[in-house]
């Protein structure tokens, strides 16, 4: 079952239960996926849908940090609710330890020995963790492990 079908079913359920916040977020997700379909001119596969979801999640996390820095708790609370809704459609997130193992394996495979080879390691890691880990989290772990080597 495609993500679009799941979203449509959940939109109907949110409408019936009069859950305006969930309905709003689900409509935004659906619109983002449909816009991507229009851009590509075909239905999206699972990986492409995951890319769209990841992009939406990143936008909300960036907004959250901006609102928290500006001490706008009212807007930060709203974005936290949106993040929780989007997370329901994301794959299970990797733990720090799982990310560390993937990064260490990539460092061993690429034979990276200094922080100058950061890009090489990141390009090996990101396809493996796509949608399953936050890029900023992966970035920090790669930097940390490269400094240890």
TrEMBL record:
Domain of life: Bacteria
Pfam families: YqeY (PF09424)
Taxonomic lineage: Bacteria, Bacillati, Bacillota, Bacilli, Lactobacillales
Protein name per the record: GatB/YqeY domain-containing protein
InterPro entries xrefs: Asn/Gln_tRNA_amidoTrase-B-like, GatB_Yqey_C_2, YqeY/Aim41, YqeY/Aim41_N
One example GO MF annotation: carbon-nitrogen ligase activity, with glutamine as amido-N-donor
